[in-house]
Amino acid sequence: MTLLRMSVQEAAIGVAVTDEQQNLTAFLHPGCAAAIWRRQPTQDFQDWVNALDPSLLPQGRISVRRDAVRSAITKMCEASRTPLCHQRTQLIDDITNLVDSFSELMKASYLRLRLQVITSNACRKFHVDAITARLVCTYRGTGTQYGISTDGNEPVRVFTVPTHAPILLRGTQWPETPCTGLLHRSPPIEGTGETRFVVVIDPISDLEDTV
């Protein structure tokens, strides 16, 4: 299938697009399939994260209290030997901000945080996650792809979220019915030499729900 890479100005029906972080509350409105915060990184940050050896990018999965996120990300950076510089501080600050914003929106005290370096076709099939909601932000490489399906098959039109733009996605446990029909996937990059660096945030009600 030929992928149609659309700008967020041409986002699918039911997908909210905003230039202001506070307007991500649109995600809670009935019928909103997803929300995208359209933003641009500083050039020095993007140059840094693009050029960094993938082995030095912070990686890990953790279930953590909202107020312990900054410390957890810092430890991931230290474990991966991410160079100590102002760009690393920018990364830690930005992920912490996304966690605070998403946790407040979802009224969650705990969350699952995943920092992942991807070089293969991870989750290449269009799907809906078996969760309540999720925030995905691609800091390096091609962003998450999504589209609307009315019959469960692959979307006819495929949209690509810009790098550095967080997208909020509803999962199968979201209480609203009927489902919006929005499916998403990680872009297929195997064999291209591309490296993606992705941060995934899932809200959870308490630590008893962690896996």
Describe, in plain words, how this protein is organized in 3D.
The chain has 211 residues and is α+β, with helices and mostly antiparallel strands. It has three helices and ten strands. The termini are far apart. The model is unreliable at 1-10 (pLDDT under 50).
Q: Portion of residues in helices?
A: 10-25%
Which secondary-structure class do the elements indicate?
A: alpha+beta
Instruction: Give the overall average pLDDT.
Output: 87
- Which strands sit side by side, in order, in the main sheet? 1-2-8-5-10-4-3
Cα Rg: 16 Å
| Structure summary, number of beta strands | 10
Molecular shape: globular
The main sheet comes to: 7 strands, mixed
Strand content: 25-35%
- Termini separation: 35 Å
What is the compact description of this entry?
The chain has 211 residues and is an alpha+beta fold. The protein has helices spanning 43-51, 69-80, 86-106, and strands at residues 15-18, 34-37, 60-65, 110-118, 133-140, 145-148, 159-160, 167-170, 182-185, 196-204.
Keywords:
single chain; 211 residues; alpha+beta; seven-stranded mixed beta sheet; three-stranded antiparallel beta sheet; 3 helices; globular; disordered N terminus
Helices and strands in order, then pairings?
Elements: E1 15-18, E2 34-37, H1 43-51, E3 60-65, H2 69-80, H3 86-106, E4 110-118, E5 133-140, E6 145-148, E7 159-160, E8 167-170, E9 182-185, E10 196-204
